[in-house]
Amino acid sequence: MVIDPQSLDVGTVYKLMSNTIFPRPIAWISTEGETGVNLAPFSYFIPVSSEPPCVMVSIGQSEEGGLKDTAKNILLHSKATISLADDHKAGLIDATAEAFAYGVNEAEKFGIAMAKIADEYPPCVADAKAALLCSLHQEVSLNGSEQIILFLKIDAFYYADEVVDERYNVKLENIGRVGRDYLVDAKRMKV
pTM of this prediction? Predict the structure, then answer.
């Protein structure tokens, strides 16, 4: 079966993509705005370059049709922190995905402890085993889309001591996204 995405509504195209291209990493992106910290989950992000070390995040429009808080804050302050999540955080990830008015601090609302790793970056989720401290590298408008594409340069990697060794081997138990579900305990296969 060949399906033409032009014949489908955007929700169906998203459903097909999110159920086909998996597992997608899921993580919280924290930013700081005029009214404080914003914490939002994203599964439309991926590493794209090692030199410079960059990830790409694709951010849609808010329900009102403007920029989402994450995009607004990154464009305003050029900084973001990406906190990777494990399976113990799945419920909180879903809770923080709800659309709130600009200025609502999701971490406070849901009792998620935050920690500053470096003064010039937004805080990370306090018990995250890994986080990426990022600055805006490039903004791209995608022709024909309301999505905003942001390339974030990784300025620093943060790891809990127990997940990284002296040779920079990292052992994380991140969860991924498969459609609306999460991928937990994916098996590693050595080749």
Answer: 0.88
